[in-house]
């Protein structure tokens, strides 16, 4: 039996970079679960790679068909953005291990849907100062940088990823990884996956 490893962490903790490195590791042989979103594509993103970018109408169709495993809505400065996991028939835990990126709430819903024994959390964290630096650096690369959105996300993330919420979600010390240096963090997560 395989597992679904879910990368969880605040915005700008490096989840996307870690995700790509883990997928590239042939020893792990991880298969990806690509999430869906209604948010606009960022520069250098590709539909079907980072996310499946869809309209709200398509989300409604998937909901009505009973295909949405979990979803969450972020009320951004630019309006509501939905992120969601779809039972699109591409994940089969009998054939190996999978990896995904999600929120803490999304992780909990996936675990409820698939079962606690099939879903493993991988919580990525960095200091608040480093997190803000990374978020500003990333936003500077956008066509229309949005500092208000950085601030909104930071405050929302601090509430969403409180120590109390992490504890309630069963995030233990062994599944928490400090991303001060990317390669070191990836090495520690790789060892964690190999042990399970």
UniProtKB/TrEMBL annotation:
<dbReference type="GO" id="GO:0005829">
    <property type="term" value="C:cytosol"/>
</dbReference>
<comment type="function">
    <text>Essential for recycling GMP and indirectly, cGMP.</text>
</comment>
<keyword id="KW-0808">Transferase</keyword>
<dbReference type="Pfam" id="PF00625">
    <property type="entry name" value="Guanylate_kin"/>
</dbReference>
<feature type="domain" description="Guanylate kinase-like">
    <location>
        <begin position="2"/>
        <end position="194"/>
    </location>
</feature>
<dbReference type="InterPro" id="IPR008145">
    <property type="entry name" value="GK/Ca_channel_bsu"/>
</dbReference>
<dbReference type="InterPro" id="IPR027417">
    <property type="entry name" value="P-loop_NTPase"/>
</dbReference>
<dbReference type="InterPro" id="IPR008144">
    <property type="entry name" value="Guanylate_kin-like_dom"/>
</dbReference>
<dbReference type="InterPro" id="IPR020590">
    <property type="entry name" value="Guanylate_kinase_CS"/>
</dbReference>
<dbReference type="GO" id="GO:0004385">
    <property type="term" value="F:GMP kinase activity"/>
</dbReference>
<comment type="similarity">
    <text>Belongs to the guanylate kinase family.</text>
</comment>
<protein>
    <recommendedName>
        <fullName>Guanylate kinase-like domain-containing protein</fullName>
    </recommendedName>
</protein>
<keyword id="KW-0418">Kinase</keyword>
């Amino acid at each position: 039996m395989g597992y679904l490893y879910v990368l969880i962490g605040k915005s700008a903790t490096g989840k996307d970079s870690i995700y790509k490195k883990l997928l590239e590791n042939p020893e792990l042989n991880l298969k990806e679960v690509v999430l869906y979103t209604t948010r606009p594509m960022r520069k250098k993103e590709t539909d079907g790679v980072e996310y499946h970018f869809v309209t709200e109408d398509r989300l409604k169709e998937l909901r009505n068909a009973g295909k949405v495993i979990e979803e969450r809505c972020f009320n951004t400065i630019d309006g509501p953005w939905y992120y969601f996991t779809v039972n699109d028939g591409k994940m089969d835990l009998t054939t190996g291990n999978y990896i995904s990126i999600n929120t803490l709430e999304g992780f909990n819903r996936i675990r409820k849907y698939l079962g606690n024994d099939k879903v493993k959390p991988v919580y990525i964290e960095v200091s608040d100062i480093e997190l803000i630096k990374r978020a500003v650096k990333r936003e500077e690369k956008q066509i229309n940088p949005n500092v208000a959105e950085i601030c909104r996300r930071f405050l929302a993330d601090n509430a969403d990823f409180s120590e109390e919420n992490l504890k309630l979600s069963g995030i233990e010390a062994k599944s928490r990884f400090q991303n001060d240096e990317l390669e070191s963090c990836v090495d520690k997560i790789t060892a964690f996956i190999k042990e399970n």
